[in-house]
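Quick one: structure tokens for this chain, please?
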Amino acid sequence: MLHTISERCLIFKYAGEDKVQNSKNLITLLERNKIDFVCYIGTDNYYPCQFTVRRSGKKWNDIMKLINSIYSPKYDYAKSNFYITEELRRENVFGNIQEVVHCN
């Protein structure tokens, strides 16, 4: 049984014509720095690439520096429910966080 984690995460989107390349560059940085995240890659020009990033024992300022080194998005914080997975690449989804949606 997988353990569901519920904690505050950083949420942001990359949009624009360079969104996919910027997202792939950030994915590489986050993986290299062992930061837990999920990124949903927008497959066409309409949908942005959306990230959810866990603090992963790091300081938020350090994580934001990494993100801003690629592109400076508008940030938001939200409580997210997820579990950590070993599967890092799924179709148009990258990262080791698998978000869980609870329906009542």
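The chain has a mean pLDDT of 88.
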